[in-house]
Write a structure and sequence with these properties.
6-stranded parallel β-sheet; alpha/beta; 32% helix; Alpha-Beta Plaits; Rossmann fold; 16 helices; 462 residues; single chain
């Protein structure tokens, strides 16, 4: 597929790298900079320097023959303008844009679409992060999770903790603990356990498993001691993401938002007027403030400031005072390693992973319904739609054990019509199945998708 990406941002650059590895022809457009020149030397893609809203720049980038445009510029106005020019002059068939402004998102249904601003898919980092936090609040004890198959199934990561019911038992006993579960991967001291059979679960092991969403808490309780979730949450603010999380959580929880900037706090007062959010203008890492307002007595502390050091510091301070459950938003991979080192922060959310996963789920159309990257992009989970017949498909009518699968691929669960099916070696693929698969090596994704893609002569059902 020929793809143009607007904006050499962190998200844009990493998305470009991923798509190049998946075999797509990618062109990256941004205003001239030293960083853009370095990207051209590092990645196998084409770089065009210039204002992406100019028709001449888009023409130079090959917009007339482009199948998809992804606008990841940090400015909403640029993303909107680029998509409009691309549609009007070059009729690029699909356009995806990152939009952040709450005013635009609140009118999304009227503003964007075939009869309005020509953007086919909107990606909102703030909404994505708010959804991620709510998921973690619903399932205490998990490190990361993502839902698939019309939200019936999920893949989650849990770190084995002292007090877990299956600690010391064999890894595969987790599947027997609840019959609707598949263990996908186990990492010990950061390294993948290649053969899980006859291995026991040890404290500190990171376990990825797939299950029905309604059974998740029972399985999580087998690996970590569950604690009451509680209804009180404190959010360290200072970013659009923290504002969105506060508004979203206030519908179900008692929320306090700590905003360090007085001018920003004044603006938020008006925005939160009709919500149940309590707003404080203070520094969340200030120990005097923490003690005076008894922040350490909350049930959950969410560090969502734009600064990684501040998030790590404030989360550790609150957790050490009273073992408060902590969730930290960490953008840079190096800081994620630091935050995870002591195992004191309960869950870390990477905006980069979440946003790129959302973008890729809208880009990878060859039978890939949804995808999510984990472990800083080293592994990933896919929801694949099985299509075709015995004649037109490489997998329909065949068992899992009969497939020539790439290395590091493990199947989880499948949704067949409304029935959830556990995928063991004897599972037989049928047309219409939605199957979940985990890759410990994301470089194998291309070969896996190719295996599930119907033969060229296959015609879809109308």
């Amino acid at each position: 597929m020929r793809i143009i990406i607007i904006g050499a941002t962190t998200v844009g650059t990493e998305l470009a790298e991923y798509l190049v590895q998946a075999g797509h022809a990618v062109t990256l457009i941004d205003t001239p900079s030293e960083e853009l020149s370095q990207i051209a030397n590092r990645l196998d893609l084409r770089v065009v320097q210039g204002d992406p809203t100019w028709p001449s720049v888009l023409r130079e980038a090959g917009a007339r023959n482009t199948e998809l445009l992804v606008a990841t510029s940090p400015q909403d106005e640029i993303n909107i303008a680029v998509c409009s020019v691309a549609s009007a002059l070059f009729t690029i068939p699909r356009k995806i844009a990152r939009i952040r402004a709450p005013d635009l998102l609140s009118e999304q249904d009227k503003l964007f679409g075939p009869n309005a601003i020509p953007i086919d898919h909107i990606i909102s980092p703030e909404r994505i992060m708010a959804d991620a936090v709510i998921d973690l609040m619903d399932l205490p004890g998990v490190n990361a999770l993502h839902t698939f198959a019309r939200d019936r199934l999920l893949i989650t990561s849990v770190t084995c903790t002292r007090g877990g019911k299956l600690l010391g038992a064999e890894i595969m006993d987790l599947e027997n603990y609840d019959g609707r579960c598949r263990v996908l991967a186990v990492y010990r001291n950061g390294e993948l356990i290649a053969k899980m059979e006859n291995e026991t679960l040890l404290e500190g092991d990171e376990v990825f498993f797939c299950c029905e969403r309604t059974r998740a808490l029972n399985l999580i309780g087998a690996l970590v001691p569950l604690k009451p979730n509680g209804k009180n949450a404190v959010i360290q603010g200072g970013s659009h993401i923290s504002d969105a999380i506060a508004l979203r959580m206030s519908q179900r929880y008692n929320v306090k938002l700590i905003e360090p900037d007085p001018r920003r706090a004044q603006r938020l007062t008006e925005r939160f007027r009709d919500s149940n959010v309590e707003l404080y203008c203070a520094d969340a890492a200030n120990m005097d403030f923490i003690m005076e307002e008894k922040i350490y007595q909350t049930d959950t502390f969410i560090a969502a400031a734009p600064n990684e050091e501040s998030n790590i510091m404030s989360a550790l301070m609150v957790q050490r005072l009273n073992k408060v459950r902590t969730i930290a938003i960490i953008r840079q991979a190096s800081f994620q390693d630091i935050a995870l080192a002591g195992s004191e922060i309960d869950a870390i959310i990477s905006p980069r992973e979440a946003v790129i996963s959302a973008l890729l789920s809208n880009i990878l159309q060859e039978g890939v319904e949804k995808m999510r990257i984990f472990r800083q992009g080293d592994s990933e989970a896919l929801e694949l739609l099985v299509q075709g017949s015995r004649r037109s498909s490489y997998v329909v009518g065949r068992k899992v054990e009969d497939l020539n699968l790439p290395a590091g691929v493990r199947f989880g669960m499948a949704l067949r019509d409304k029935l959830v099916v556990k995928m063991d070696e004897n599972f037989v693929f049928e047309d219409g199945d939605r199957v979940l698969v985990f890759l410990t090596d994301r470089m194998q994704m291309r070969a896996l998708v190719k295996l599930f893609k119907p033969r060229p002569f296959w015609l879809p059902r109308w």
